[in-house]
Amino acid sequence: MTDQYVDVNTNTRPDAYKEILRRTRKEHRLLSAHWEITYRCNERCTHCYLDVLPPGSQLPGELTTEEAKGVIDQLAELGALTISFSGGEVFLRKDIFEIAGYARKKGFAVRFFTNGILIKPPVADKIAAIKPVVVELSVYGVDAETHDGITQVPGSFDLTLRAVKLLLERNVRCIIKTPVMKENIHQIEALKQLAADLGITFQYDLTIIPKHTGDLSPLKHRPTDDQLLDFLRERVSPETWHLYPYNDDFRFCSIGMNSLDIGPYGEIYTCVGARVSAGNVRQAPLHQIWKESPVWEQTTNLNLANLPVCATCELRQFCVRCHGTAAFEDGDMLGCSSVAYREARLRRQAYLEKGVTHA
Hints:
The protein is α/β, with parallel strands linked by helices. 36% of the residues lie in helices and 13% in strands. It contains 13 helices and ten strands. Strands 1-7-6-5-4-3-2-8-9-10 form a ten-stranded mixed beta sheet. A hairpin with a 4-residue loop joins strand 8 and strand 9. Helix 2 (65-77) runs parallel beside helix 3 and helix 8 packs across helix 13 (338-352). 40% of the residues are buried.
C-alpha cells in the first residue's frame, strides 16, 4: 500500500513515465484532462470548493452526450492519453457510461472520481465493464459520525464503503482519498489502516481551498497550527522531505504545461485549482484553445524567477504552493499564498526538530 500526501515530494514513478511527463511539459503537449462533467451532487460537503447543485437540477447548459463525444475526439487529436471524470457526482450523469465507453474506444485511460453513493451492483458492473485505471472515492473520516458530518448526508459513510467493496469484488482498482481537516486529522492513521484492511491505496493531502465564488467558508475546516504541527512532526524529516532547489527554473506545479480542466458547460481551464479560463469548446475548437490561448504561456511561465515574493522567501524549500489558492484567497496569483506560507513555516519547524541544524 502506498501512503501519499502533499508533503511527500519524492517521485517514485517509473522512469518511462517520468520521461513522458518531462517531454510533454517541455513541449506543451496535452497529456491529460480533468473533466468536471456535472456540478450536480448528492452530497453537500461543507468543505467543497464548488457550489454544487441538487441531484435533480435541470441543467440544459451541460454539454450534451454528442458534444462530450466531440470533445473526446478533439482530445484524441491533440494526443491526450488520460481522462479523469469528476463532478459534482459523476454518476449523476445518466449518459456517463456512454461517454466513458466512447473515451475507452478512442484509446483513453479513464479514471472516475466519485463519492460512491450511487454504486449498487448494476452500476458496479457497468464501471467494471469500462475497465477504468482506477476509481477514486472520497472518505472524510473513519466513522459515520465524522464522514456524514462533512457530507451532510446520513448513511453516506456506509454507502461509500459499500461501493468500495462492490468494486473490489469486480477487480476494479480503488483509492480512498482524504483531505486533512481539523475534524479528521486525528484519524489519518486509522484511515490508512482502513485502506490497508481493504487492500487498497490511501492518499491524503492538506488542500482545503476557498470556493471559486470567493466564499471562504470551507477554510473553517483547516487544522489549527498546533494540530498541523503535531501531524507534520510524525511525517516530515530529512528522509521524507527533500529540500526544493533554489534555481530560477523551479516550478511548484505543472500548471499550463500538459493538462487542462473541462467544465460541465464547455469551459476550458488551466487546472482545477487556478481555474483560469482559456476558452470554451462551444466557441472555438479545442486545438485552437490549446495552441493559441495566451493563458498557457502566462501560466507556463510561473517558475520561481517569475514569482518575486517566492524567489526571496526563506521558506521556499518547504513550500507546497497552489497558484490558484494565492489568487482566490490572497488576491494575487504571483504573490504570497498565506496558507502555503503557514504550512511551510510549520513544515520547516518539524524538519528542524529532527536534529537538522539548518535548512
